[in-house]
Amino acid sequence: MRIPRNPRLLEVNARLWLRRAGRRTGSPLDLSAIPDDALSTLSGRFDLLWLMGVWRRSPAARQRALRDAVIRAACSEALPGCSEDDVDGSPYAIHAYEPDPILGGDAGLAALRRRLRGIGIGLVVDFVPNHLALDHPWTLAHPERFVRGEENAHRSRPDDFFRTARGDLLAHGRDPNFPPWNDTAQIDFFSGEARCALVGELLSIAERADGVRCDMAMLALNDVFSRVWGGARGATAGPAPATEFWSEAIGAVKERHPEFFFLAEAYWGLEPRLLDLGFDYVYDKGLYDALLASDIARVRGRLAEPPAVLGRGMRFIENHDEARAISAFGPERSRAAAIVVMTLPGLRLVHDGQPEGRRRRVPVQLVREPDEAIDPVVATFYERLFAACADPALRDGRWAPLQAHPLRPGDDGGHGGLLAWCWVLDDRPFVVVVNYSNRPAAGRIDLPRPPGGGVPLDLVDRLSGAAAVLPAGEEAGRGGLAVFLAPWEGRILGTRPSTA
Fold first, then answer.
1. pTM above 0.70, yes or no
2. What percent of the chain has pLDDT over 90?
3. Residue 128 to residues 39, 45, 103, 185, 416: CA-CA distances in angstroms?
4. FRET label pair with 52: which of 30, 170, 361, 480, CA 20 to 30 Å apart?
5. Helix (H, G, I), strand (E, B), or coil: what is residue 491?
6. pLDDT digits (tens, 9 = 90+) for 223-236
């Protein structure tokens, strides 16, 4: 299916989403029986649904989670009184790329995908290239597909390795900046057989979904893999391949499924390389960090990238790895940040519970969530934001940054905290202005000039309904749009919606 140029993506935890729907109906459900009203709320708001945690989970990973004091403490903090029945293996320690039977298996996933397509929404699932669960069948049948350690490496780095029931010494998956994931087995990306098997899994996934979010995608790069594992792989391990895994994998999938969608979770400044290798979008963690730090200079630096590059970033203010936005940013600043990420070019991510103002981050091992009341202020804000962002101008228009100036010469007025840009479609402008600071701001925003000259006079804030303010008197000669914004206030100014 065709994905819009600037799509909107909702991430939901598959088990929690299904359980929540089952509570409303009063009986357990699988994916084929998701109520119509649960899907109708997505229509018009989102183009893609990322169903996180759809694959079969690992029994051994669950046992590791139950024995892990850090995981158990995080689960108890998120869900006081949780029991062992509330904890499962991590969805990122995959036992098989098969839809979990508790979700309805292949039939349940296929039924949901058909219904989503019927309302114009594509289905995105996870692909975890770096590792599989430590009890994945390949660990016994094909140990050569994993990083195999030697006794010396095991003695010097005992937490990095484990023994299979067959006696093979395999490495746990890891990010070099953190302890190993002890519920996983590390794929050997220099193994041609492992690469071929992973491409086969991706081709199978492409028959079941419309796209993949690729976990920790940069770990599969040849130089990154060599830096992490070069000194620990066994003496019989092969050399680095001549090509990158992602160019092989993405090329093979897109040859059969040209519109299949690839999103890379990526960090360390390696995002441009992954885009060059064929990814459609990459995480923009840099913008998230800048917004969280309220570093306006860094935010502007991210926005100074060419539109073609900016338009391939995935932006967010929360996801399953980050703290809840309302807790991390605070209520007012989280709303300002949401306006920013939802109106920039590229992929816009919304996390399940974000529009309701949920505050508790749920560990991925939990299969039951805490009850949280909906925050009516947050819910109303997101209703208006989704309605504003549904306008075609913000999805298919032409984007450009706008400059903020003092309202009067020599008068600061706090305009340095203003961020502004516009979208133009069919000569209709949409102007976004956000005061991303903790002080009031007054300033003048340069407006795009429509054909024939003049300025568009009939702009209204799609969030509040208030009309735009154009400078009067002396300031009118300088042109532009006068803005007076409270701390963390934002406006999405567009032509008045037709009442016809």
1. yes
2. 77
3. 27, 27, 19, 12, 42
4. 170
5. strand
6. 999 999 876 665 55
Which residues, including other chains, have CB under 8 Å from residue 215's CB and lie 6 or more apart? 92, 126, 127, 128, 129, 130, 265
Contact 202, 146 (CB under 8 A): no
Read off the pLDDT band of 15 (50, 70, 90). very high
Alpha-carbon dihedral angle through residues 324, 327, 328, 333, given to the nearest 10 degrees:
110
What does the pLDDT average to over 408-417? 79
Backbone angles phi and psi of 97, in degrees to 5? -80, 65
Cα gap 232→334, rounded to integer Å: 44
Which pLDDT value is given to residue 429? 86
344-377 core/surface letters (b: 16 or more CB in 10 A; e: else)? bbbbbbbbbbbbbbbeebbbbbbbbbeeeeebee
| Helix (H) / strand (E) containing 204 | helix 192-206
| Helical (H) or strand (E) element with 124 | strand 122-127
User: For residue 419, which of 356, 353, 337, 477 has the smallest C-alpha distance?
Assistant: 337
Longest pairwise C-alpha distance within the chain: 84
Q: Which residue reads 């298996």 in tokens?
A: 105
What is the model's pLDDT at position 149? 83
